[in-house]
Amino acid sequence: MRAKRSKKYRKLMHQYELAFGFREPYQVLVDSNLLRAVHSFKMDLIPALERTLQGQVKPLLTKCSLASIMAGQPTNPRTNNPIRPDFLPPPTTLPLRHCSHNEDSTPIDETSCLLSLLSPLSDVKRNKEHYILATADPPAPKSNSATQQEIGKKRKRDADDGLQALKRAQALRRGARSIPGVPIVYVKRSVMILEPMSAPSEGIREGVEEDKLRTGLTDQSVQKSGGPDGGEKKKKREPKKAKGPNPLSVKKPKKRVEQKATAERERPRDEAEKRDSEKAAEDGEAAPKPKRRRRHHKGAKQGDSGGDETEAIATAPIEATDQ
Ligand SMILES: [Zn+2]
């Protein structure tokens, strides 16, 4: 794969990770047309998917896809079972995704099955399970030279079937694009392609980025001295130091802070954040809110935890010297 394209795909998958929570190994719902295309272009399913998605993959075949593949297969006269086609990889490579759409779990139409897995909820279109769809157009109808020998009726029927299959494949992709957060891989000629984000996906992604920008700005105003990430680790250590020296003088103001904090939780978020920065300004040290709250919870639950901890600290060195 060209370097430029792989970079583009890596970036795209990174966006799916940030905006929709995709994680490796990526779960890829593979449809029957993709398997036919991969086989006819002599591609290796997993390496091809991993090159395209720029990460580890876990391909899955739904029970309904398998049923649709087997339905078109001739039966083995000895076992009376349909013969496994060459293009169908073994279950070790492509495990079955069990799906049950009705009471007796009869397989349903492949397109409906895949769309129902991509968006299981009836009220909201959401790719809850973070599936990636890997599909392809159905194989082109057999060449003219082959059909010329057959009777006209049969040729027409094949062409109609081909058209129907193409329509189904297009409906599947259209349906998948309408669900936000569904990466779509498809094989075009002999190339595996990762589609750009659909408009619904892009809409969600932009919303997520805007939120991040907004919270990022407010975080900075609150944690001026703390720092966004480095402060987090410091916070955990600082409370212990503060507890030791003067628990009595610290406790009373802490209660007030807690009351404020609980009241704030009920208020709208923006207001709470505003108050927070004000409070920080009053205190002089712009310590972030989570730290205070956590510190208090601990104290409230364990009673005089401050005292306990100082005891623990006091005994610790003795134990150390004993050993
Ligand atoms: Zn199904």
From TrEMBL:
Segments of skewed composition (Basic and acidic residues): 256-288
Keywords: Nucleus
Pfam families noted in UniProt: Fcf1, UTP23_sensor
Composition skew (Low complexity), residue ranges: 312-323
GO CC terms of this entry: nucleolus; small-subunit processome
GO molecular function: small ribosomal subunit rRNA binding
Organism: Emericella nidulans (strain FGSC A4 / ATCC 38163 / CBS 112.46 / NRRL 194 / M139)
Sequence ranges of Basic residues compositional bias: 233-243, 289-300
Region annotation (Disordered) ranges: 133-159, 212-323
Keyword Nucleus on entry: yes
PANTHER family: RRNA-PROCESSING PROTEIN UTP23 HOMOLOG
Lineage of the organism: Eukaryota, Fungi, Dikarya, Ascomycota, Pezizomycotina
Protein name stated in the entry: rRNA processing protein, putative (AFU_orthologue AFUA_1G02610)
Span of domain UTP23 sensor motif region: 239-255
